[in-house]
Amino acid sequence: QKNVGLVDAVSGIKLVIVYIASILFFNGDIIYLKIIAIILMLLGIYIISVNKSEYKVNQNNYWIILSCLSGVMFAILMIVSRIVLDSKVSVLLTTGLIMFVGGILFGASCIAKKNSFKLNRGKGDLIFTVVCATVGNYFLFKSYSITPNLAYTSAISSSRMVMLFMISVLIGYDELSTKKIFAVLLCFIGVI
Questions:
Q1: Rounded distance, CA 50 to CA 117, Å?
Q2: How far apart are CA 3 and CA 22, in angstroms?
Q3: What is the pLDDT of residues 115-136, one digit of tens each?
Q4: Three-class SS state of 176
Q5: What pLDDT is recorded for position 52?
Q6: How many CB atoms are located within 10 Å of the residue 6 CB?
Q7: How far apart (Å, rounded) are the C-alpha atoms in residues 13 and 72?
Q8: Residue 57: which pLDDT band, with cuts at 50, 70 and 90?
Q9: Are 137 and 95 within 8 A, CB to CB?
């Protein structure tokens, strides 16, 4: 799937997991409006996932499974990060350690698969990506440490799905359709 906005919308399943975990483990409140929002988001995810009439016959829909798994993994990351941060570990240390371990695992994966570390484009792209990931993750982990419910932080940061969707359309990776717009809007409304 070339439209990363759709991929991000499907990975929004993490909000459901994190909202439930916040209630069970962190004394989060049950708010019925939030439950309605989660239902809207799940409906949007369902529409995105089953809207096969707009896919080319040869297109692989494996991205849906991978996106859902990504959402589950990020939900686990959020929950564990909150537990670590609640034990008064520094946000900088937590962010740095997670990014360091992630980088080591990514590098090991590249070596195991015999992928080249040679950049196809300039080093500036890589440096810009690392800076954005580092700063973004710092702010994200800082918000994990102070939010009353982890799902709130995730919801706000997930609003990027609309930007990603529109950028994908603008640069020609996807086309607008009523169903896609409706599904992404449902996810976005559910997130907010």
A1: 37
A2: 30
A3: 766 666 667 777 887 888 888 8
A4: coil
A5: 54
A6: 26
A7: 7
A8: very low
A9: yes
Q: Which amino acid is at 81?
A: S
The span from the CA of 4 to the CA of 174, in Å, is 10
Residue type, 181: I
Q: What is the pTM of this model?
A: 0.62
Distance between CA atoms of residues 137 and 96, nearest Å: 9
Residue 71 CA to residue 75 CA, distance in Å, equals 6
Contact 184, 43 (CB under 8 A): no
Q: Is residue 148 helix, strand or coil?
A: coil
Contact (Cβ atoms closer than 8 angstroms) between residue 85 and residue 94: yes
Is residue 13 within 8 A of residue 156, CB to CB? The reply is: no
Tokens 């707009």 sit on residue: 54
Which among 15-19, 47-51, 114-118 has the top mean pLDDT? Answer: 15-19
